Each structure stands twice: as structure tokens, then as C-alpha cells.
Amino acid sequence: MDEVGKVVRDYITREYLQEGDDREITETTPLISGGIVDSFSMVSLLRFLEKKYSIHIPAEAATPQAFDTVQSIEALVHRFQRTEVSV
Amino acid sequence: MAFTNTVRNCYQTTIEEIKAAGLFKEERYIHSPQSSEIEVEFPVGSTIKKCINICANNYLGLSSHPAVIAAAHAGLDSRGYGMSSVRFICGTQDIHRELENRLTAFLGTEDTLLFPSCMDANAGFFEACLGEQDVMIADRLVHASIIDGMRLCKAMQDTYKHSDMGHLEEKLQEHQDKRLRLVITDGVFSMDGDTARLADIVALAEKYNAMVFLDDSHATGFIGRTGRGTHEHWGVLGRIDVITTTLGKALGGASGGCVSGRRELVEMCRQRARPYLFSNSVAPVIVAGALKVLDLISTSTERRDKLEWNTKYWRGLLKDAGFDIKEGDTPIVPVMLYDAKLAQDFARDLFDQGVYAVGFFFPVVPKGQARIRTQLSAAHEKRHLDFAIEAFRKVGQKHGILGLGKKELLARCAA
């Protein structure tokens, strides 16, 4: 897990786990299919990533699959960081 | 495109997937009026069975109340069967406006607009009242109809952890740059039976200049000292900007819902809410029945008080028997089983014992949170609850879960 992954993991723990929920979020913990993040509240994660990394993630890329693990979110952020740079 | 075998197969595959996932829903045919004792045909074609019903939203037991039925008959005779129109063409009778005024007085708001259902009220409100410059901040456990309504609206969506006031405050701070802020919550959450911390929500909304939206469908008629709802319970009558609620639960249980609140918000719905604009008026017979319901509950708290007694009694029975229940004081009492299959088996066994209750599991509730949701009614007599607890005890013994706490039940599921 790189720096982006750690930031994402910390945000998810803070934003989505209820008080007293001591589940550990790892790189591969299923977030959406595992019921930690639902597709409805995924919006705040998307907004957080866009603001934090100054990127724009288009709706077609913000799929439940792309947001399902810290690993996949990490990859998504890197992909759009590169896009921003190349533009 | 014709409905070819390829198309048919496509749907059949999906239906099979739903079945394989254990999510296939089947209706049970009831051959009697809605009540605490009902006659059920299940599975289809089997002998009709008498059951104690412990899963209806018939909180005040008014679904088949003689006075409501008589008023509905009278309404049918005097105002006819249907309106064959939406409200704003030729679908508004005097009694529609009378019911809106009576609901306004009962809920302590400024104005009310009837909708075909509360689902429609929730589907229509947000798009009608908010735009791109605004933000909606919802509790994460709000009802599915609110989520659908929010998705139809262009305002920014955000959510806060269930009943977490610190998290809500963070969100309100974060969105101070928006034109309008709307905090959205259920009054009583339908799956857990807990009550929103409405006094805290209102205080935060006032501090951060936000409006409050309350879906009080599982509260109107019986929560609060005189049954006005969650806002009465928390002492914030008149401080909620918009309340949506239903006639389909405590208030007679037929159908219909409303948006009730600030005059301008209600007017925006009358002008712009699509489910209001493009669907038929609530049928006159239902309006007449609902007016009688309001007569009954405005003049006496007897039914609400009986429901409160039944709730306490039932919660006590379940705890004494060794069940793990969600704490609270509302008539929604979830019996926690955690495991989806166990919840399904448990409901089936209860039915065999003459008790009609339903198992809920993912995606209706979070994974690992399967349960039997029991719901009390003022139509329940003590003997109904005594009968039901015996059935619960027998089935609990059969599955070896009596006296087990959450950890033991979870361990049992994992085994």
C-alpha cells in the first residue's frame, strides 16, 4: 500500500465505520460488495479523492468495482493523476 | 423487438440468480381483513391457516376499524370511487383539501400536500425544492424512497454516519459554501426501530443554517405524547421544515402520503413535484377514511397508549425468553439472528407455529445483520403476544439460540 492507499484507508475508516466497529481495512477488504461503503454514500469518497488529489474522476470511471478495495481506489487515483499531468 | 426466447432467457437467468442468492420474494395471500389475527394461504394452494400477525405497519390497529370502514363507505357514496384525474386538472375535491388542512393541524406545520404514497412524496420533494447550488445531507440509514428521491435531484448528495451528530456537524461545516443545506432523516428507522436524535439535529441545523427534512412514516399517529410524531417526542414541534409521512401505516393503512411543512416548500411541490403532477389523486374513499382516522386519534390517545403498553410488554417477553433484540422504545422490535438462512428458517418455523413474521437480510439490512422484524399493534391483545412468545420460544429452542448474545450468535453463524 503506497501513500495514496494509506490516505484512502484512513479516510474510509474515519468516514464509514461506525463508532465501535473495529473491523480492519486492508488493501483488499471488499468495501462495496462487503457492505462497508454503499453506492449511495460512495459520493463523499469520490469528492474527497477529487479534492485531495486535485483530479476529476468522470462518472463512467466511478464504478462500484473501481471503488471496491483500497487497492482499486489507489489505482484509480494514480490513473487520473497521470491523465491530469499529461493534459 | 419481439419478446424472443433470447430475451426471455435473459430475464429467466436474472430471476434464477435472485433465487440462488436467497433473495427471491414471494407473496402470501391473506383471505381476511388486515388485523392482529389473519387467515393466510401459503404456499399458494395450501390450506388457509389462522395466524397471529406480528409484521404489519398497522400500529394503531385502524386498518379494519369499524368507524373507519363506515366513513370510507360514506365517502364512497357521497364522493364516488375515483377521480380519473390528477389533482390540478379536475382531481381535487373539497375533502382532499380538508384532509390536507387536518394533517397540517395534526403535524403542527404550515401546509400539506397529498401524494399517492409517501414513496411518491419522497421521490418528488428533493427535485422540486433543491438545485445544483444546494446540498442534501442524509443519515446513512434513511429509507430507500429517500435515496431514490435524492438521486433524481441535481443538488450535491452527502451522507452522515447513522445518528452520529459529530459527523453531521462536520458535514454541515464542510458545506457552508452551498446556497441551501438540507439535513435528511427518518423519524423512526424502519429496520432498527430506533429514533432519530431530532432535538440535536434541529439544534445543529439552526446553528449551521440548514433545513430539516423528516420522514415520519413509522411515527405519525403514535410517537410523542399525543402521537404527532418524532418531533413531538423530542419537543421540536414547529421547527421541522418538511415532514413526509404516510396514510399507509398507522393512519388507516390504505395508501397515500404527504409533504407537510413550510408553506413555500409545499407550494414548490404543488408546482413541480412530478409524482404529484403526473399521478392520480388519492381516491375519495381513502380520503374519507383518513379523515375519520384523524378524528379518532385527535380526540383520544387510547390506541397510542395501548400500543406503548404492548411494546413494553413484548420487548420484556422477548428479553426474558433469551432473545437478542435491538434496544429501543418503538413498536418496531428486531429480533437479531445475524445469519440470513437462520432468519429465513426461523420465519418459516414461526409460520408453522401460527405466527406470521418475516426475516430480513442483506441487501435490506447490512450483511451479517439478519433479523426477524416484529411490529406491535394496538390491535394486539395480551393473549396474542403470549401466544406469539410461546411460538418464538419453541422455534428459538429448536435452533438452539435462546440466551445467546451477539458474539455467540455470530460464532454460531460462522460455524
What would your notes on this structure say?
The complex is a heterodimer of chains A (87) and B (415). With 87 residues, chain A is mainly alpha-helical. Chain A has a single domain (3-86), classed as Non-ribosomal Peptide Synthetase Peptidyl Carrier Protein, Chain A (Orthogonal Bundle). Chain A has helices at residues 3-16, 42-53, 70-86. Chain A is globular, with a radius of gyration of 12 Å. The model of chain A has no long low-confidence stretch (mean pLDDT 86). Chain B has 415 residues and is of the alpha/beta class. Chain B folds into two domains: 33-62 and 302-414, Aspartate Aminotransferase, domain 1 (Alpha-Beta Complex), CATH 3.90.1150.10; 66-299, Aspartate Aminotransferase, domain 2 (3-Layer(aba) Sandwich). In chain B, 44% of the residues lie in helices and 16% in strands. Chain B contains 16 helices and 14 strands. In chain B, the strands form three sheets. Chain B has a seven-stranded mixed beta sheet with strand order 4-10-9-8-7-5-6, sandwiched between helices. In chain B, helix 5 (118-129) packs parallel to helix 6 (144-151), helix 7 packs parallel to helix 8 (198-207) and helix 14 crosses helix 15. The longest helix of chain B is centred in the C-terminal third of the chain and has 20 residues, at 302-321. Chain B is globular and about 55 Å long. The mean pLDDT of chain B is 96. The A-B interface holds A 15-16, 18-19, 34-35, 38, 40-41, 43-44, 47 and B 140, 147, 150, 156-159, 161-162, 164, 362, 366-368.
